């Protein structure tokens, strides 16, 4: 059930001392091979944190020996000093593990605009390297938590003898082009970095990229996939892609379920769009409507706010030919009231909004959350 | 101080009975000429309410004799029956005033997806027509309020003898391409409908279009400008445009100050952009960041959330060359921490965020609000 589920990996989660709470705050995952294949995708935010700038270089050759992740500070907008901190962290990991710094991915999460204390980080790297173990995935998953209330892990075991395992963190700033998330996925399947990259991009496109909790895109998002080849099994590539997508979807749903302050997990399913892009654009517009999200918090099936959001997009549809159903009740048919909104039960945490555009045959589902008092509280009372 | 400040106009605000509160809910403004020149702009939402579909036709010829506005229901997504309601309302006004229904603008605001009771509306039209008076602007301004806590009026008196006056409503769903607003502006200057249209578009572009309280675009927004020519004075066209812009800005700031649940009025000023569009895009991205808005509510000058929002745009800038100042304190210079964030005082209601892109010499300011518990409460506890 973790980043160490696949063979060939060791992990550790330690207390470096970056968090004032004294909780674990530094994680290390080592790929012990025999392969060191890897792929990664990063935030599409142009304001990227130093560890993202570093890791984008590291991943170029598709070779990664280890990944080190810290909570307690984003190391973003910290200038040359901040970049040197990232570089020194990678060097320290490389020295401890006897690998090249150029094969060490670095991830950070926390407040933007504050320098990380290098000595504290380096102490944490030493402790983590000493604690590396092939069964310490949970500790690593705990060490990357910020406002997360629980660690997030997933795994898939193929009957063919290979495994995919992963861990994730992220609770706010969850928006597309990834969300504020750090995700490490490991596999012992025998795959090249090109194969891993293809599978990772196809999986994230329909999972993490469709999670939009609060419309805010982070500066630090990273999803890394490491392949050790330790199973000795070469999987069918489409089987592997399906397994990876399932693990990514499971982790994305765990992120949604733990989103800051949320009281509803909302799936916005767009049907019969002219293109998949259109379906995504429409679903995303609804997922970003504060009025719609506040209504769901108040258990108010306000379908007018759904259509008002749909109408801001340039997707193809007849504005007066759209159907909307909420939790199975068709409240709007062809742009007119249908079933009474009072029939909709919004007391369950799971909410399903179905929007039929009648414009084609493509579909997409966006995952989001409601807008609650607790969201406002968490994001106003604490700097993060 | 009102829509009847300019000569040649009469107005009324009456209790038709659309609102359960028993407050005024129907307003009528009559242009008594000698001219009946007019211009109007509408929501860019593709899901337009029936009164918008109607009024877009009415304004084609630039001739408007009267405008009737109701609160208590948006008449949006109400199908053919809803359109007939709008049409019948215009016919009733036309009959009462002895004008053509094709010269009567109709505006509605309230909940989407509910039919308006036609008999109640028509009763209100009769009462309003009987109550029309050249000093009843305030009553009209009160009748268009929804969640507004106060009526919004403005006027400008030119030393050359012409006047511009206006009223507005809007408190939520305030986003670009107008906001959830109904605005009626009147003038007794002698101008053609083409001149009015030019002036109105240039004024709304830099005022109402730059108010983005909550990122949600309404289905019903209308800004109408009626010209009676009753002053007999032909103004200098640029003087008139300036006066109209000042009235629109004043009304926009009143809308911002009364936005649902807001505790801060935030001006996001973007400096040195490559183009004005770039400046608007950047300011708008920040104005739509829930994390930034929640931080301001918590008096937290979290400039990292400003830059994280800036980085989601495709405006031209060097992500590591941006300066940010909040309420006069330069917290970030060239993408690195500058003055300590503790120096920023966010206790005043007015907040000024200055973003220097160092990419050109264009500028724009977006007006927005913070994200508060009261916003969530107002938009979850009441259907609107």
Describe this structure in words.
The structure is a homodimer of 384-residue chains. The model of chain A is unreliable at 174-179 (pLDDT under 50). The first copy, chain A, contains ten helices and 15 strands. Chain A is of the alpha+beta class and 384 residues long. Chain A folds into two domains: 9-257, 4-Layer Sandwich (L-amino peptidase D-ALA esterase/amidase); 265-381, Ubiquitin-like (UB roll) (Roll). In chain A, the strands form three sheets. Chain A has a six-stranded mixed beta sheet with strand order 13-12-11-14-10-15. Chain A has a five-stranded mixed beta sheet with strand order 3-9-8-7-6, with helices on both faces. Chain A has a four-stranded mixed beta sheet with strand order 1-2-4-5. Chain A starts with 8 loop residues before the first strand and ends with a helix. In chain A, strand 4 (66-70), helix 2 (79-97) and strand 5 form a beta-alpha-beta unit. The radius of gyration of chain A is 21 Å and the shape is globular. In chain A, helix 5 (193-205) crosses helix 6 (237-257). The longest helix of chain A has 21 residues, at 237-257. In chain A, 31% of the residues lie in helices and 23% in strands. At the A-B interface, helix 8, helix 9, strand 13 and helix 10 of A face helix 8, helix 9, strand 13 and helix 10 of B.
């Amino acid at each position: 059930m973790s980043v160490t589920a696949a063979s060939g990996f060791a992990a550790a989660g330690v207390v470096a001392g970056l968090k004032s709470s004294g909780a674990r705050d530094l994680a290390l995952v080592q790929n012990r091979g025999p392969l060191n294949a890897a792929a990664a995708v990063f935030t599409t935010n142009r304001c990227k944190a130093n560890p993202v700038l570093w890791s984008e270089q590291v991943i170029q050759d598709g070779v990664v020996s280890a990944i080190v992740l810290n909570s307690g500070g984003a190391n973003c907008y910290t200038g040359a000093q901040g970049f040197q901190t990232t570089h020194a962290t990678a060097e320290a990991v490389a020295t401890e593990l006897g690998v090249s710094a150029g094969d060490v991915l670095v991830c950070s999460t926390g407040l933007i605009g504050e320098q990380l204390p290098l000595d504290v980080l380096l102490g944490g790297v030493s402790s983590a390297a000493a604690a590396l173990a092939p069964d310490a995935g949970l500790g690593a998953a705990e060490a990357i938590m910020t406002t997360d209330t629980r660690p997030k892990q997933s795994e898939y075991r193929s009957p063919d003898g290979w495994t995919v395992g992963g861990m994730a963190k992220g609770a706010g700033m969850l928006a597309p082009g990834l969300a504020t998330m750090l995700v490490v996925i490991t596999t012992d399947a025998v795959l090249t970095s090109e194969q891993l990259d293809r599978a990772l991009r196809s999986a994230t496109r329909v999972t993490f990229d469709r999670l939009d909790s609060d419309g805010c895109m982070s500066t630090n998002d990273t999803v890394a996939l490491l392949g050790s080849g330790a199973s000795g099994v070469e999987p069918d590539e489409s089987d592997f892609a399906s397994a990876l997508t399932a693990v990514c979807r499971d982790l994305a749903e765990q992120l949604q379920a733990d989103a800051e302050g949320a009281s509803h997990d909302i799936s916005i399913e767009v049907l019969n769009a002219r293109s998949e892009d259109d379906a995504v654009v429409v679903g995303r517009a609804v997922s970003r409507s504060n009025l719609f999200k506040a209504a769901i918090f108040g258990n108010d099936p306000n379908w007018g706010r759904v259509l008002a959001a749909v109408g801001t997009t340039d997707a193809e549809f007849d504005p007066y030919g759209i159907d909307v159903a909420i939790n199975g009740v068709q409240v709007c048919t062809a742009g007119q009231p249908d079933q009474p909104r009072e029939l909709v039960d919004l007391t369950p945490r799971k909410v399903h909004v179905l929007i039929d555009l009648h414009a084609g045959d493509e579909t997409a589902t966006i995952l989001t959350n409601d807008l609650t008092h607790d969201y406002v509280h968490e994001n106003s009372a604490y700097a993060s």
